[in-house]
Amino acid sequence: MSKRIISAVLPVLTLIGPACDEVEDALAAEDALAAPAAEAADEGVSARAGSCATMYEHWHFEGEAKEVDAGAYVPWIGNLWNDVVSSVRVRSGCVLNVFEHVDFGGAQTSYQGSVPFVGEWWNDKVSAYTCEC
Ligand SMILES: [Ca+2]
């Protein structure tokens, strides 16, 4: 049985129970492949396609949340969010670059993974950002 066929029939076989050792091996391989995705979901990052990061008003991911799309290139975060961001969650494999001033001016830093507090210096300073995966 080819891998392609196993993939096609796995959902059905999963419902009716393991039919043979070959299928069980294939299921184990699928579980191994699925592990990284499950880990990312545990970090609370939105799994929707195109998501890059989430920025939060307060530390520890509290307060208002702002979703950031992959490929975002935002020279002005807007009046509502200017100098507000205190924590960020960045999807696995993505990088969020933040800037102190409008038009990517001033200081710059980058975040990956879960950052419950951006630090004393960066707290309430972000005015522009980009995000890439
Ligand atoms: Ca600022």
In short:
It comes from Nannocystis exedens. By secondary structure, this protein is α+β, with helices and mostly antiparallel strands.
Notes on the structure:
By secondary structure, this protein is α+β, with helices and mostly antiparallel strands. The protein folds into two domains: 3-42, no CATH class; 51-132, Sandwich (Gamma-B Crystallin, domain 1), CATH 2.60.20. It has two helices and eight strands; from the N terminus they run ααββββββββ. The protein has helices spanning 3-16, 21-42; strands spanning 51-58, 62-69, 73-74, 87-90, 95-101, 105-111, 114-115, 128-132. Strand 5 (95-101) and strand 6 form a beta hairpin. Calcium ion binds at residues 83, 100-101, 125, 127.
Question: What is the fold's blueprint, element by element?
Answer:
Elements (H helix, E strand, L loop, with lengths): L2 H14 L4 H22 L8 E8 L3 E8 L3 E2 L12 E4 L4 E7 L3 E7 L2 E2 L12 E5 L1
Antiparallel strand pairs: 1-2, 1-4, 3-8, 4-7, 5-6, 5-8
Bound molecules: calcium ion.
InterPro entries: G_crystallin-like
Organism: Nannocystis exedens
Protein name: Beta/Gamma crystallin
